[in-house]
Amino acid sequence: xxxxxxxxxxxxxxxxxxxxxxxxxxVAGLSAQASSCDAAVCVPAPYLAQVQALCQGxxxxxxxQDVSEHEQGAYTGEVSAxxxxxxxxxxxxxxxxxxxxxxxxxDALVSHKARAALAQGITPIVCVGETLAEREAxxxxxxxxxxxxxxIHDNGHCISEIVVAYEPVWAIGTGKTATPEQAxxxxxxxxxxxxxxxxxxxxxxxxxxGSMNAANAASLLAQPDIDGxxxxxxxxxxxxxxxxxxxxxxx
Length: 251
Ligand code: PEP
Hints:
By secondary structure, the chain is of the alpha/beta class. Helix content is about 40%, strand content about 15%.
């Protein structure tokens, strides 16, 4: 059976001291749990080396929050997948709504970033999700299918190696969570789309993200097509993050 995956997205938070305390507490908490769930933290790029040193040999993997679509060269400020690999990075979030919104990332760019990660053996966590206006206009399904289709189009041959995170934009950092039924409905649509794209769709983890926390994780993770979570705010508190992982193990 596929393991569930709980991935933290620290966003632009953290600092050397706080990171050390947080990661040490998560690693200690994980070693007390059986490893029937994968867990990771996606951290700001400057802290990858620190987090690598803290996590090495533990049950906690680490990832980046973005990756360049380019291999190398004159792209000031960008970080390549090869550089991420130098730090043992297992995951790279691509297409987070904050990057789509504040950095104008298009579906095409997101799919190229996923391709760049895959080429270096890094698992892209591909984020898709509708805004509130799109949901209210009845466009949820069309939006997430369009976003995922771009990634499938560019990466069809290795699409079973990706992770997909459904993150309704209106639920991210707002304290408003999709109901388990709303989330499951969209996950079922994404699952069907992946099934049509690859014979190995059952390997693909479909995460839910958007104000998932210690209190609501169990009901979301109990849904048949929710294979884990992408966790923002609650991943900055070790006890909450560990509780979400415990809920995933129990689901
Ligand atoms: C996220 O940043 O991916 C996220 C889901 O944030 P939050 O859990 O804070 O809503």
